Amino acid sequence: MKMTGMMGERNFFSQQPFWEVTKQRENSLLCMEDFNLRLMRYNVNQGHSGLDCIPGVGQLGLVFSVKEKDASAYVFGVLPEKKEIPLYGIENVLMVQFIPGSFTWATGIPADEVPPEGFKLEDVFPWALSTMEGINAVDSEQEHSLLLRRFLDQCQAKKTGRRDSDEKMAASIAGYMMQNRRAVRMKELEDRYGYTARTLQKLVLKNVGITPKQLSLQICLQSAIRQLSDNKECSLTEMSHQMDFYDQSHFNRIFRKMTGLCPGEYIKRLEGRAAGEEPKQIKHALS
């Protein structure tokens, strides 16, 4: 059973509208046998040392330096709230994003043990120095893809304590939520997967990094961000109904908690951007 078959829309990756970065090339997919990864190449804008992030769809990530004096790399966990994440001095960035559940499947490292603020790649993968140095030495999508594929193959070869069934089920749950893009209740997951709420909670937390409820809310948020980006005239009442929130005020509270803005304020920011303004928070949105 392959993860890609369970993921629904495979390209449903997070949008980060508040990042202060400049794209260096188009985002691309690295297609492994069982899952895809998104590769993003950007430079951090002058005067900024971190990324102002909102919760994504449950993707862990790797960040590598590119063409800098010293090679460095970090592993970042899933963020459950709006927060600035440090980049530890990296200015020229290659970011690798894993679909929910695939990081643990690929590496054997429980997702809930990786903090959102990250830690050094070499602390977990001391044998990966050649990967760090190779990625830092060139600024080539093809070379970066080859090096990352080799790195992931090595991770698989060194992985211990396999629990492939748990990892694939976690990816399946995330894929189900992405396909539905609404608030998914635990009773629904119990009925669908045949396990107790407690078992599913532990399984998703370990393999995705957040609880099923939090994952569902974050997927709803990212779906709303995508819809508002595509159509600023969309009805918030209809959107909250489609996502199965209790009412629009419930949706508004979740949106504000995760982005720092209510939906109406966010739409005004988008409208300002469309009118040619350069609002600090959204002028370099990556999707």
UniProtKB/TrEMBL annotation:
Keywords annotated in UniProt: DNA-binding, Transcription, Transcription regulation
Using the record's annotation, list all stretches that form the HTH araC/xylS-type domain. Answer: 167-269
One Pfam family hit: HTH_18
Show the InterPro entries listed in the entry.
Answer: Homeodomain-like_sf (IPR009057), HTH_AraC (IPR018060)
Q: Which PROSITE patterns match?
A: HTH_ARAC_FAMILY_2 (PS01124)
**SUPFAM superfamilies attached here?**
Homeodomain-like
Molecular function in Gene Ontology? DNA-binding transcription factor activity; sequence-specific DNA binding
Query: What top-level branch of life does the organism fall under?
Result: Bacteria
Q: Does the keyword Transcription regulation apply?
A: yes
Protein name as catalogued: Helix-turn-helix domain-containing protein
